[in-house]
Design brief:
about 0% strand; mainly alpha; 4 helices; about 110 residues
């Protein structure tokens, strides 16, 4: 008995590249689902299932790029995490420098 391999059917009317284009046009370029079904020659139900992620889950999602606010918030979280991670290391470095200074003063 053979196993069905997702995304590998001869009956598929759309390639993975076309599915990605559909999702991109719908999510990022403002195309309507009716326009997409006319462009690609499939039903509105097919387009709806593609856009909602019900079908073609193996194709990466074409989400909208992050907004400037989302990028800034991500940057602030990253800087805060780096500072938190670096604090113990900075303390060790200062302790090592103080030890080196004590050794130099003792010589």
């Amino acid at each position: 008995m053979s196993k069905f391999i997702r995304g590998n059917t001869r009956a598929a009317k759309l390639s993975p590249e076309q599915v990605y284009e559909i999702r991109d046009k719908w999510a990022n370029q403002g195309w309507t689902q009716a326009r997409l079904c006319r462009e690609y020659g499939v039903t509105v139900n097919t387009i709806s299932r593609i856009c909602s992620g019900q079908t073609h889950q193996h194709v990466p999602d074409a989400t909208a790029p992050p907004t400037e606010d989302e990028v800034q918030a991500s940057y602030r979280r990253l800087v805060a995490q780096l500072n938190a991670d670096a604090a113990p290391m900075a303390k060790e470095i200062r302790a090592g420098q103080e030890l080196d200074q004590l050794k130099e003063d003792g010589e």
